[in-house]
Amino acid sequence: MEAEANSWLERIPAKWESAQSNFQTLQKAERDARNKYRRAADDAYESVVSLLAVLDGTEALKDLGEDLRTLADEVAENEPADMVEAVSEMSKRIGAVDGTKDIKSPLSKAKKALKAKTPDKEKALGYMNKALAAYAAQLVWREKAATSLAAPLASYEFEIRRTIGARQQPDLPRDLALYVARCSADHRDISLNF
Question: Would you kindly state where each structural domain of the chain is located, as residue ranges?
Answer without folding.
Answer: 64-141
